[in-house]
Amino acid sequence: MPWIAGGIALVVVLALVVGGALFFLRDRSASPVAEPNPVPSLDQIAPPSAEPSPSAPALPELPQPTGGRVNDPVTGLSYAFPGGAWLVPKSSEINNPADQNMPLWTAGYMAMSQQNYDGKNSDWVGSVYSAELPKPFPYSGPDDLRTITGTVLSAYDQIFYGPAHQRKIVRNEAMKVGDHKAWVVEFEMDFSAQAKASGWKWKTEKGAFVLVDRGEGQRPAMLYASIPDNLNQSVLKQVLDSLQAR
């Protein structure tokens, strides 16, 4: 699949092949917050989308940061840009408009965690991206935020984090983004066993999904951030604390 899930997600820079790593793992360690309720897989939510026509228009490029922030022109989200190793990728490297089950990222950035980590030219990266909630996820208003945020995590866990891992939920609660109602699920992914056996440069990863209600008739804005432990994981808190919505 020629797109980068971004961050932490299993990503192949310039071309991500998700392979067959579609599985659901429940948390097997103590967690201070309850795991989201079991939900259908993404394949059960909606079937794969049809291929686009050859004449499909080119995707607009992601906005470059200004004033130490990234401003998403589609979702209205705005969040901190840490600079340094983080960079804005080309839209074509992280998006596949052929698959409507996947987010169409409209802003964000990434940093390299480990190149060719699996010996198959696949790169592992840290990612911070925003998009509208994909259409296959039903949404009727703010009362759905908790359920849908948990559904998003469970569905994309299967795709963004291919290697065997354990998942721990560390925060699962309502929040406000400006005047907008929102929900955040913050998590940790533990790849320690396979990382040690494979000689990977990272062992764990911290991340979050945030859904922000944008008002009646509009799809929620979605923020996704995931950062391996060989990158500066304080970026996650920086992004969440700085999140704004117009």
Query: What share of residues are in beta strands?
Result: 25-35%
Described by the principal axes of the CA atoms, the overall outline is: globular
Q: Give the termini distance in whole angstroms.
A: 33 Å
Query: How many helices does DSSP assign?
Result: 5
List the helices and strands and how they pair.
Blueprint: E1 10-11, H1 42-45, E2 69-71, E3 77-80, H2 91-94, E4 107-114, E5 123-132, H3 145-160, E6 166-177, E7 180-190, H4 192-198, E8 204-212, E9 221-228, H5 234-242, E10 244-245
Antiparallel strand pairs: 1-5, 2-3, 3-10, 4-5, 5-9, 6-7, 7-8, 8-9
Description:
- By secondary structure, the protein is an alpha+beta fold.
- It contains 5 helices and 10 strands, in the order βαββαββαββαββαβ.
- It has helices at residues 42-45, 91-94, 145-160, 192-198, 234-242, and strands at residues 10-11, 69-71, 77-80, 107-114, 123-132, 166-177, 180-190, 204-212, 221-228, 244-245.
- The strands form 2 sheets. Strands 1, 4, 5, 6, 7, 8 and 9 form a 7-stranded antiparallel beta sheet that branches. It has a 3-stranded antiparallel beta sheet with strand order 2-3-10.
- A hairpin with a 2-residue loop joins strand 6 and strand 7.
- The longest helix has 16 residues, at 145-160.
- It is globular.
- The two termini are 33 Å apart.
